[in-house]
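User: Please fill in residues for this 211-position structure.
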């Protein structure tokens, strides 16, 4: 009788242990599946995000490479150093013979007219020249002043003899706009500050003429 009870208790204990083991194995399987599923979602999200970032970068590059509406271009511009004034065919000038000394053109804002021959030399170094006439709104001039002071290889000055309120000039390239809110301004700066058009990339924009 005692032996039978002992066997029954032993069998019940073994059954209980086996039940606990089955439950533990089930939990382990669920945890593994949950871990794998979570990792898959994370990896998929990272991969998707990576593709998104790459796609966004490609879109920005394509936008920068696309032609900017309204930009005029000139080619075969001479680069001789002269000591006389030059009669440029465009206003403001975007290239041609120029003075051997450039105007300082690194985040430089001038409030008086610049000598064109020195300004053109700065364009040869890869700078962008921002000019405005008396039809430009005061708020636009202030906004452009702030932008130039934050952008290396740019300079700004008043220039009355131009056909638009605001003009941006790089070597061989020019854009005329009516207001500082025109989105093409930033695209012009992104494209032509030390851009591919630069005859002397990396040349100094300081140590020149300070007006």
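Assistant: Residues filled in for all 211 positions:
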């Amino acid at each position: 009788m005692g032996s039978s009870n002992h066997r029954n208790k032993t069998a019940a204990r073994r059954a209980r242990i086996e039940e606990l083991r089955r439950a533990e194995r089930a939990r382990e399987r669920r945890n593994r599946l949950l871990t794998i599923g979570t990792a898959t979602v994370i990896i998929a999200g990272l991969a998707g995000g990576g593709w998104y970032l790459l796609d966004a970068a490609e879109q920005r590059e394509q936008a920068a490479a696309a032609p900017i509406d309204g930009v005029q271009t000139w080619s075969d511009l001479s680069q001789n150093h002269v000591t006389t004034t030059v009669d440029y065919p465009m206003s403001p000038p975007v290239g041609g013979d120029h003075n051997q000394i450039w105007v300082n053109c690194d985040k430089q804002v001038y409030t008086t007219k610049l000598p064109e021959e020195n300004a053109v030399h700065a364009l040869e170094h890869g700078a962008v020249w921002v000019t405005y006439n008396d039809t430009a709104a005061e708020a636009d001039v202030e906004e452009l002043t702030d932008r130039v002071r934050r952008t290396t290889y740019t300079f700004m000055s008043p220039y009355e003899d131009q056909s638009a309120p605001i003009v941006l000039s790089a070597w061989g390239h020019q854009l005329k706009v009516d207001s500082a809110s025109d989105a093409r301004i930033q695209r012009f700066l992104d494209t032509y500050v030390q851009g591919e058009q630069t005859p002397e990339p990396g040349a100094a924009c300081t140590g020149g003429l300070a007006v």
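For context: The radius of gyration is 35 Å.
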